[in-house]
Amino acid sequence: MKKIDNDTYEILAPIDPHSHFRSPAQIGDAVFNVVVDENSRHYDVVYAEPNTFLDQSDLKHHIEHADDVLKYRTLLQERQKGFGGRASIRVLAKLTHNTTPEMIRALVQLGVAGMKIYPENVTTGSSHGGISDFFHRLLLECLRTCEELGLPVQVHPEYPGEFSMRKEFLFHRVIGTYCALFPKLRLFVEHITDRRTLDLIQVLSKKYPVHGTIASHYFDLTLDDVLGRVDNHCRPNPKEPEDREALILAATGGESCFLYITDSAPHLWKNKHLSDDECAGVFNPSRIAIPWTFEIFEKRNALHMFERFTVDNPSKAYGLTHSGREIRLIRKRWTVERLADPTGDKERSLTPFRFRKDLEWQIAE
């Protein structure tokens, strides 16, 4: 990080190992272009989550096989080239009850970024291919294969069928068992919201290669911000103010077991506001997420830890080499507005994180 003056900093472009780009089949071609740009523009590396369908005629089939990863990665890279994007976009594959060790080996040969476990019916895109039996023989064989190949495994840490505020804590039994069964498995516990999970990761990471990721919208939201505000609805649900404070302390504390993500998850306005579907997810694009995170670190007198959280820790955890690309942040207050659909249709617009609120910093384009 280079301090130009009190109002200008040059920082290494962060790494975001958890972002949702959706697909043209899911949100339409024009909005998809906007999302690819907004979710990748200011990052060095971005990981695309696999809970999306590529074909409207087959909504149940997500990014699961080697040919799915190749098709999705090519699509994302081609769209990114259209606006001169510079981020390296990598794609994860969904680990389902139908995944086999042979499929995982084929995915690794293709360069998959990692595997992702979604518990059944806990979030967007988890009703198809979601895991209901976390200790099924074939699933454990797949995890053993991931361990042997050194392939990262992300997991959404909520236990199905439980009360929403308890789901994450009750998933601890799964995390602990996986660590014991597969002590070299590179396990990533995604978007932590419960302070007890932070404690668990701190303990486990001393013995196992397990990491916890923290999404920056949880530096702001508690359950009160979600009740009656569908745009803030996400999974896992934000918890208590004490959990929010613990997340900020973990992020600014510099421990290598915690790393930055956005979990940026766009939904069309009409789906968030007019649909019977749950539509869990907060849209947190790079031009909002990075200044917001920087603002939090500045307020906590922790700017010296910013690049550790957003670059160093993700790089080490995933074995990435940063390109050295920098972006410039300037102190200039601005108000977050809704992102319009290119066609001008409000129902197809996107409402981002901190809509109608001010940010103290912005990225100099």
TrEMBL record:
GO biological process, one term: 'de novo' UMP biosynthetic process
GO CC, alphabetical: cytoplasm
GO molecular function, one term: dihydroorotase activity
Gene3D superfamilies noted in UniProt: Metal-dependent hydrolases
UniProt name for this protein: Uncharacterized protein
Organism field: Candidatus Taylorbacteria bacterium RIFCSPLOWO2_01_FULL_45_15b
